[in-house]
Design brief:
By secondary structure, this protein is an all-alpha fold. The chain has helices at about 1-20, 25-40, 45-60, 65-90, 95-100. Helix 2 (about 25-40) packs across helix 4 (about 65-90) and helix 2 (about 25-40) packs antiparallel against helix 5.
């Protein structure tokens, strides 16, 4: 049993060292920049209005591709809050997506 646990531990360690970290995709970067443009300045400081505005703009930009329209919803629910917090903290709009690791350096 100890041998199995040691083997599992070694496999987990090797996977952690070998597998690359998740990198932002081009779509993540595109959506982040779109979100920054839509939410800067924040709409009446109400997140749900910024979210609705982002979703509408995103769907307009990606019209006709159903899975990308769903990606707009998923992105808004998962990533819009950190973007708004970065903008509110004073981060320059052009630097927000790099700061939250949605776009490459």
């Amino acid at each position: 049993m100890k041998a199995v646990l040691c083997f599992v531990g070694l496999v987990a360690l090797a996977a952690a060292l070998v597998l690359p970290e998740k990198r932002a995709s081009s779509l993540d970067c595109f959506m982040c920049r779109l979100a920054v443009n839509v939410t800067d300045p924040p709409v009446d400081n109400l997140v749900h209005k910024s979210e609705d505005k982002f979703i509408a703009e995103c769907k307009k930009m990606l019209v006709g591709v159903p899975f990308l329209e769903q990606a707009c919803l998923d992105y808004a629910h998962a990533e819009l809050d950190p973007i708004i917090k970065e903008l509110e903290s004073g981060t320059a709009p052009e630097d927000v997506c790099r700061e939250i690791k949605q776009c490459p350096q």
